[in-house]
Specification:
heterodimer, A: 90 residues, mainly beta, SH3 type barrels, five-stranded antiparallel β-sheet, 12% helix, 42% strand, B: 138 residues, alpha/beta, Glutaredoxin, five-stranded mixed β-sheet, 5 strands, 41% helix, 20% strand
Chain lengths: 90, 138
């Protein structure tokens, strides 16, 4: 357990705002809750869909400046992930 | 969900003992933030141990700095809901998150620290970023 995690039993990313990139090209931002068999459980999550009007760069830039605009109170991401980063790493 | 006073009181006192005024009602918020002159630090307190556990000690460190905002206030997200919502209306371009911090200058947001900028950081790192903002804007 990381020194920054104050909830015993949770993994190191618990409570951290992460960016998940999926194999289909979706970018999903949210607060990592836990990894379960079905996938990654995020709270207060928002997604950028490939091909949407807003560019991925704009989505990321706005999220970094103004915060995550949540579309899902809780979201289970079961897609194949190609990367997992902290939002602050972008 | 209402958190018991027994649980939140130490988190409140960790902030108020720094000289930060706690705003518990909409009227409290309007009386301070409605004035709009000078610099005001607004801390959105939180019960979340992951991030607020770093934010409160960071505030304590940052407020030892020689340059500080004119006023320092806090609201408690998840506890004083109406006051928190009202305070957030003064920085409504920014998505709600807690803990978070805003620095207002003459009523305008000049610096904002989101929860995601607090998570996983040591209090010393957060404090260094805050004092840099104090030097720049206060």
């Amino acid at each position: 357990m990381s020194g920054h995690v104050f909830h015993p039993g949770h993994d190191d990313l618990h409570g951290i705002t992460v960016v998940l990139e999926t194999a289909s090209g979706r970018l999903i931002v949210g607060r990592w809750h836990e990894k379960v068999e079905k996938g990654v459980v995020l709270h207060d999550a928002a997604a950028h869909e490939p091909g949407s009007q807003q560019t991925r760069e704009d989505f990321v830039a706005r999220t970094l400046k103004f915060g995550v605009r949540p579309e899902h109170r809780t979201l289970v991401v079961s897609e194949e992930l190609t990367s997992v980063k902290r939002l602050t790493e972008l | 969900m209402a958190y018991p006073d027994l649980m939140t009181r130490p988190m409140r006192e960790e902030v108020t003992r720094l000289g930060i005024q706690e705003l518990k009602t909409v009227a409290d918020v309007d009386a301070v933030l409605g004035e709009g002159e000078g610099t005001t630090l607004v801390f959105v307190n939180s019960v979340c141990g992951c991030a607020a556990g770093g934010a409160r000690p960071a505030l304590s460190l940052a407020l030892q700095h020689s340059t500080k905002p004119d006023r320092m206030v806090s609201v408690f997200a998840g506890v004083d809901g109406d006051a928190t919502q009202r305070a957030r209306s003064f920085f409504s371009d920014y998505q709600p998150s807690s803990p978070s911090l805003a620095i207002l200058k003459d009523g305008e947001v000049v610096h904002f620290v989101h929860r995601h900028q607090i998570e996983g950081k040591h209090p010393q790192q957060i404090a260094a970023e805050l004092t840099a903002a104090f030097d720049k804007f206060c």
